[in-house]
Write a structure and sequence with these properties.
The complex is a heterodimer of chains A (476) and B (206).
Chain A lengths: L11 H9 E4 L5 E4 L2 E4 L4 H9 L10 E3 L18 H17 L2 E2 L10 H7 L8 E4 L13 E4 L2 H10 L1 E4 L3 E8 L8 H12 L7 E6 L1 H4 L3 H9 L8 E4 L3 H7 L8 H11 L12 E6 L6 E3 L7 E3 L13 H14 L14 E4 L1 H4 L2 H11 L9 E4 L4 H9 L2 H8 L2 E2 L20 E4 L14 E4 L2 H10 L5 H5 L3
Parallel strand pairs in A: 3-4, 3-6, 4-5, 6-7, 9-10, 9-12, 10-11, 15-16, 15-18, 16-17, 18-19
Antiparallel strand pairs in A: 1-2, 2-8, 13-14
Helix pairs in contact in A: 2-5, 6-8, 13-15, 13-16
Chain B lengths: L5 E9 L6 H4 L19 H4 L22 E4 L11 H9 L3 E4 L4 H8 L4 E4 L2 H13 L4 E5 L4 E4 L8 E3 L2 E5 L4 H9 L3 H6 L2 H9 L3
Parallel strand pairs in B: 1-2, 2-3, 3-4
Antiparallel strand pairs in B: 1-5, 5-6, 6-8, 7-8
The chains are: A alpha/beta (476), B alpha/beta (206).
């Protein structure tokens, strides 16, 4: 690490940016060195771009691959993927990784899972790193004090070929989290409340640093959820300064530094926080004690309200454009203004995804599900975020609680979050979902998605309709 | 990538905010190879009904808009997924420029790598252009990359310079991206000439 020569105050983001800057181009874009490049099974076109130019991955040991988008969640057998083009995507990742000498956790590897769950879990995501991946939810890894962001296919090829990437320096936005979370309210509710507050484009062009006393009390898994959905506010990346929680989470993980190297790493990581007098381009604060369990009613994550609220009336929209957008969303979602959200019957319930497919998420759902049954007419799924999450959940008996209640207990993958593997919500079906996007058609053409925390999904599954999880936790 | 200099073409007004990349290119086509014509999948679920017939309510299916090569959009166009396929779908259909008050960061980055020009203009200017293009299907606007201007044959729009019967807006674009678009240069080719600097950096790293 080069010594800091300037006495100027820097943000966490600036510290990491400066350490990875190789040179600046005439247009002001910076060539950045990439520490870790994560690959999933949508990477075939990037490897194809490389082949077309006769290039090979330049620093294969800095890449790591695991299939998640196209893998089946009812079996671990790739041959069961009926569509040959989809099967080819998952198979291509194995072949391309093997040819390049890239570390690969395939379906036959117990460590396979959603790349944004697997990498932190294995200790591959570390403080101070610059991490990229051809997936927008790469923002997840910023929870460990890394600068991590999603890139497109051409950029994936660029990183493979050069281990670098050109980027225009984003602006910074600090979100201060104050207060204390109430029972039944989780990290998912915090990030939905932030997106509702600043809007789906509220952080466009910015990196968000989350800070404040409420953050210090949050677990690593909760922090991963918040950084994960930073992209849903338009943010280029979400970051959090590493602290004792971060170090305790990382210590002993397979790819984390070990022994004497660990001590040296922690010493280095302790310097990774924004200087007290560092300034941000924008600041927002949120008192988390004012947050209730949230659900979305529309087709943008910014359409999030407390579960106790009613479907908003487009007549109250601040502009004609907003009114039209609301009308369109209500029509698509099959809603009328003024309906109580807790009156909405659901057809599907989904717990999983890179947002909420970790052990703590499953435990929060089990606390609601235990001793209850999935409501008649509701198809409820749990898709653990990774093989290790699944096995640890089974060791703790969580799978039995889910199965006895009537949930399907499936294998790790992205699954119903975006349906690329064929797991879909049918047209017109309403799904309570612990995922990250309620876009039109996101879970399948005509699907109606309501985003919420995994505990809220559990509450909806056993109630047959959207429900306030706090009522179901009373006396437990 | 074909060089982009200036373009006079039909404008497609899409009057809805937050038009995400899932709607531009649904996820179920992500496994298709790049050699496919992704233009067929552009706005797939907006353009077509579930039985495969045209959705007459979608703007692209209305008379006058099919030949569009310029998209006029509202806030946060291209938000969401990092899928470059959304840019490929627009490009393969024939779209060469997107004009909006704001766009998703990753979408803008992907567009720059594929010869799709993204132009950010103030919301009132874009709203005026959308209204004009809705009022007159087939309305042609001109994007001149060298002059960094967008010109529309419509009077009014008090906020812009009104030149007789045309309204003109100037836009910002950095010199490097402008040159890449004008000449069809690619970024990877340029970075590969810098491998010595990258290796020097690596030797001093950690």
């Amino acid at each position: 690490m080069s010594p800091e020569t300037s006495h100027q105050a820097h943000t966490l983001f600036e510290k990491i940016w400066r350490r990875h800057a190789i040179q600046v181009r005439e247009d002001g874009q910076t060539l950045l060195y990439v520490d870790s490049h994560f690959l999933q099974d949508g990477s075939a076109p990037a490897f194809e771009l490389l082949r077309q130019r006769g290039l090979e991955p330049r620093v294969p040991h800095r890449s790591f691959a695991t299939p998640d988008h196209y893998v089946p969640t009812d079996t671990r057998d790739l041959a069961s993927i009926a569509d040959p083009e989809k099967r080819a995507m998952a198979e291509a990742l194995r072949r391309d990784s093997a040819a390049a000498g890239i570390r690969f956790f395939g379906l036959d590897d117990p460590r396979q899972g959603i790349v944004h769950v697997v990498a932190p879990e294995q200790g591959l995501s570390q403080p101070g790193m610059l991490i990229v991946c051809g997936d927008s939810h790469t923002s997840t890894h910023g929870a460990l004090g890394a600068l991590a962001f999603g890139i497109g296919t051409t950029e994936v090829a660029h990183v493979l070929a050069t281990q670098t990437l050109w980027q225009r320096k984003p602006r910074t936005l600090r979100v201060l989290l104050e207060g204390k979370l109430h029972e039944g309210v989780s990290a998912k509710d915090i990030i939905l409340a932030i997106i509702a507050k600043i809007g789906a484009a509220g952080a466009t062009g910015h990196v968000i640093e989350y800070a404040g006393p409420a953050l210090a009390t949050l677990s690593m898994e909760a922090r991963l959820t918040i950084c994960n959905m930073t992209i849903e506010a338009g943010g280029r990346a979400g970051m959090m300064a590493p602290d004792a929680t971060t170090f305790a989470y990382l210590k002993g993980r397979p790819f984390a530094p070990q022994g004497e190297e660990w001590n040296r790493a922690v010493e280095r990581w302790r310097g990774l926080s924004s200087d007290p007098d560092a300034t941000f381009d924008k600041e927002v604060s949120l008192n988390v004690s004012e947050i209730a369990p949230m659900v979305t009613w529309g087709n943008s994550p910014e359409d999030a309200v407390a579960v106790t609220a009613r479907v908003p009336d487009p007549a109250t929209a601040p502009s004609a454009e907003r009114r039209d957008a609301m009308l369109r969303a209500l029509r698509y979602m099959g809603l009328e203004p003024g309906m109580a959200l807790t009156d909405l019957k659901i057809d599907r319930a989904f717990i999983g995804s890179c947002t909420n497919g970790r052990l703590e998420d499953l435990e929060s759902a089990v606390a609601v599900v235990r001793g209850r049954k999935v409501a008649t007419g509701v198809e409820a799924w749990v898709v653990p975020g990774s093989g290790p999450v699944k096995r640890e959940a089974e060791a703790r008996g969580l799978d039995r609680v889910f199965k006895e209640a009537g949930f399907q207990w499936r294998e790790a993958g992205c699954s119903l979050c975006l349906g690329t593997n064929g797991d879909l919500v049918a047209p017109g079906q309403r799904c309570a979902s612990s995922t990250n996007r309620n876009f039109v058609g996101r879970q399948g053409p005509g699907s109606r998605t309501h985003l919420m925390s995994p505990a809220m999904v559990a509450a909806a599954a056993v109630s047959g309709r959207l429900a306030d999880v706090r009522r179901l936790l009373e006396g437990r | 990538m074909e060089p982009f200099k200036s373009l006079r073409a039909v404008a497609l007004p899409i009057a809805q905010p937050n038009l995400d990349t899932d709607q531009i290119l649904p996820a179920r086509f992500l496994h298709k190879p790049r050699a496919e014509n992704f233009g067929e999948y552009l706005f797939r679920d907006l353009r077509f009904r579930r039985d495969g017939s045209d959705n007459p309510d979608f703007i692209l299916n209305k008379p006058g808009y099919r030949a569009a090569r310029i998209v006029l959009a509202e806030e946060n166009f291209g938000c969401g997924s990092s899928r470059e396929h959304a840019v490929w779908a627009l490009y393969d259909y024939g779209i060469r420029a997107v004009i909006a008050p704001s766009m998703g960061d990753i979408f803008v980055s992907n567009a720059a790598k594929n010869g799709l020009l993204t132009i950010v203009l103030p919301a009132p200017a874009v709203a005026g252009m959308i209204q004009a293009a809705l009022a007159e299907p087939g309305l042609q606007i001109t994007v001149d990359l060298e002059a960094q201007s967008v010109t529309m044959p419509v009077p009014g729009a008090a906020s812009a310079a009104t030149l007789g019967s045309v309204t003109q807006f100037n836009f910002e674009i950095d010199a490097y991206r402008q040159r890449c678009l004008l000449s069809g240069l690619d970024e990877l080719g340029y970075t590969l000439t810098l491998l010595d600097s990258i290796e020097t950096f690596e030797r001093g790293y950690r």
